[in-house]
Specification:
It comes from Amycolatopsis ultiminotia. Catalyzes the oxidation of 5,10-methylenetetrahydrofolate to 5,10-methenyltetrahydrofolate and then the hydrolysis of 5,10-methenyltetrahydrofolate to 10-formyltetrahydrofolate. InterPro entries: Aminoacid_DH-like_N_sf (IPR046346), NAD(P)-bd_dom_sf (IPR036291), THF_DH/CycHdrlase (IPR000672), THF_DH/CycHdrlase_cat_dom (IPR020630), THF_DH/CycHdrlase_CS (IPR020867), THF_DH/CycHdrlase_NAD-bd_dom (IPR020631). Pathway: One-carbon metabolism; tetrahydrofolate interconversion. This is Bifunctional protein FolD. The chain is globular, with a radius of gyration of 19 Å. It folds into two domains: about 90 residues, 3-Layer(aba) Sandwich (Rossmann fold); about 120 residues, Rossmann fold (3-Layer(aba) Sandwich), CATH 3.40.50.720. α1 packs parallel to α9, α6 crosses α7 and α6 packs across α9. A six-stranded parallel β-sheet has the order 1-11-8-7-5-6. It has a three-stranded parallel β-sheet with strand order 3-2-4, sandwiched between helices. The protein has a two-stranded antiparallel ribbon with strand order 9-10. The chain is of the alpha/beta class. The longest helix is centred in the C-terminal third of the chain and has 23 residues. β5, α7 and β6 form a beta-alpha-beta unit. The chain starts with a strand and ends with a helix. Bound molecules: 5,10-Methenyltetrahydrofolate.
């Protein structure tokens, strides 16, 4: 039988730890601050940013927010980021993605100082990860590792397959698993025989962004399957994995919703505390 991995429970534990760290390591004047930058009026992005801001306040941290009009030029967004970069009350800066077309997201992300890059998406943060050095890690793959550790899944020596090579999830996920001594394959659209590759995986992380891509033909019996996909369908939220078709094939599986999603926000909170501690060391 397959055991569901409860992301909500693990995320709650991370958030409890963050609230404890905020209360014991900081004062009201020094408490970690997260700045969210929302460009434009995409409703889904507004909802995500709203839930991040509520969580920040709930955990006793400082909420800083900048709303930028959708027709803002690259230089205007850059100026907002530069101001937040200088602000000592801001420990971390999150530029909500996707940006309106015409803006160069990669260039804007790279204006964020590495010690404030709580999304872990800048080129410098990616380099620190590639070298397995101290730094802020992208929230979603960091959350996946927390889930695997919470479930007692052995990563060292495991065969891990990541489906998808996005900057946000797939690439950093592959590197984080390599850093933990898994044998890792990262697949993508040009992988000729995807089921043959994924069927080798003890740990299968699916971050393709393709609804229902993964079925029973992709899964090794006894595998741990992590579904990073999230899609709004007429039947409700669903992932990249056709969970109902897997039968008892997987040993463990994350649900959508209630799996990786809640972990992403929890790790953002944890990264904000880590950034505040990093700033203190730099001061
Ligand atoms: N700079 C940036 N950093 C991000 O980390 C980032 C972003 N931009 N843009 C959008 C994506 C998406 N994302 C999610 C976070 C939480 C849930 C989440 O909590 N999902 C719930 C369900 C929520 C619902 O009901 O819609 C769950 O899976 O249980 C999902 C998706 C972060 N992103």
């Amino acid at each position: 039988m397959t055991e569901w991995i409860d992301g909500k429970r693990v995320a709650q534990r991370i958030r409890d730890q963050v609230a404890h760290d905020v209360a014991t390591s900081f004062t009201a004047d020094t408490s970690p601050g997260l700045a969210t930058v929302l460009v434009g009026d995409d409703p889904a992005s507004a909802v995500y940013v709203g839930s991040k801001r509520r969580m920040v306040r709930h955990l006793g941290m400082r909420d800083v927010h900048r709303a930028v009009p959708s027709d803002a030029a690259q230089a205007e967004v850059a100026a907002v980021l530069d101001e937040l970069a200088e602000d000592p009350a801001v420990s971390g800066i999150l530029l909500q993605l996707p940006l309106p077309s015409g803006l160069d997201a990669a260039a804007l992300i790279d204006r964020i100082p590495v010690a404030k890059d709580v999304d872990g998406l800048s080129t410098v943060s990616a380099g620190l990860l590639a070298r397995d050095r101290f730094g802020l890690r992208p929230c979603t793959p960091a959350g996946v590792l927390e889930l695997l550790d919470a479930e007692g899944v052995k990563i060292e020596g495991a065969t891990a397959v990541v489906v998808g090579r996005s900057d946000l999830v797939g690439r950093p996920m592959g590197q984080m698993l390599v850093n933990r001594d898994a044998t890792v394959t990262v697949t993508h659209k040009a992988t000729p025989d995807l089921p043959a590759v994924t069927r080798e995986a003890d740990v299968l992380v699916v971050a393709a962004g393709v609804h229902g891509l993964i079925g029973p033909e992709h899964v090794k019996p006894g595998a741990t399957v992590i579904d990073v996909g999230i899609h709004r369908t007429p039947a409700g939220l669903a992932g990249d994995v056709r969970a109902a078709e897997l039968g008892g094939l997987a040993r463990r599986l994350t649900p959508v919703p209630g799996g990786v999603g809640p972990m992403t926000i929890a790790m953002l909170m944890a990264n904000t505390v880590k950034a505040a501690r990093w700033a203190r060391r730099l001061a």
